[in-house]
Amino acid sequence: MSHQASTLKTSKFLTPILTLVLSTVFIFTSFNAYAAKAVATVNGKAISQKTFEAYVEHKQKQDPKFDAKKSRELLIQELVNRELMYQDALKRKLDKDKDVIFQLKQHRIDLLIKHAIRKTMQATPITDTELKLEYDRRVKSANVKEFKARHILLKSKDKAISVIKELDNGKNFIKLAKAYSTGPTGKNGGDLGWFNARQMVPEFSKAVASMEKGSYTKTPVQTKFGWHVIKLEDIRQMDPPKFSEIKNQVRIIMQNKKLQEYIGKLREQSKIIINK
Questions:
Q1: Angstrom distances, CA of residue 192 to CA of 143, 214, 246
Q2: DSSP3 helix / strand / coil % (the chain, rounded to 5)
Q3: Domain housing 88
Q4: Domain-located, residue 104
Q5: Structure pTM?
Q6: 193 shares its domain with 222
């Protein structure tokens, strides 16, 4: 390969690399200790293999399909441009700027917190057995039900009360829904199918949860949609998701719990004054 082809000042890379450099917040420094494995040298400053590998890892986190081998030369050019701008920033004494110093301090704090959390988690890793126990506990306590119901949606409370009186007199709920309901389910006799409490507005869910199978509401239920007369046709227990399907979610829940315990312990051991 000729000197011209291998030089790190190849102009064809400059514009796209500069765009990529300015669009990312990845922070790195050159490690002269790794100069022996340098992928490039800029004004005597080595860009180490370790720096290159860290940059590749950053790219792969952004895009898991990123192919570092095919993009090696482009990545090196990006790192060269970064180093050039870093050196220029030092020449302009931007590292002495008060705002820059403050931001660097915040980055340092964030990095140390990140590693403190990581070390805490690594000290007591969550086992699959613990995950399964937490899953079983949550499934047992959840007791999530599904309801099958019909409703008649009315525009006024008085109209809803009159419909309830007709039901009290033995009128058929489905026929009344078809005749009076202003909702889209009216033509189907008010059929809502199966649903759980989270799928309905709170007022509706609360009313259904307090009903007995086969009963209808004796007083109208108001929601943002209007006034409802509800008939509960059936109740069943929801099948919980399989452990394998939500294992990672359970892990996140337990990690958050451990994090809160870690923070709580630190607060107990500290003197904290909140200025008002």
A1: 21, 15, 28
A2: 60, 15, 30
A3: 3-92
A4: no
A5: 0.57
A6: yes
Assess if residue 29 is contained within a domain.
Answer: yes
pLDDT at 145 over 50: yes
Count of CA atoms in the C-beta half-sphere (13 A) of 232: 22
Tokens of 246: 């939500």
Whether the Cβ atoms of residue 193 and residue 148 lie closer than 8 Å to each other: yes
Nearest-angstrom CA–CA distance, 251 and 229: 42
d(CA 162, CA 142): 38
Count the domains in the chain. Answer: 3
Q: In this structure, are 172 and 213 located in the same domain? A: yes
Mean pLDDT lowest for which of 4-18, 41-55, 249-263?
4-18
Please report whether residue 103 resides in a domain.
no
For tokens 């340092």, what's the residue?
108
Give burial (CB, 10 Å; 0-12/13-18/19+) of 87.
middle
Considering only 9-18, 24-33, 82-91, which range has the smallest mean pLDDT?
9-18
Residue 5's pLDDT is: 38
Shared domain check, 196 and 256: no
Q: Are 146 and 238 in contact (CB under 8 A)?
A: yes
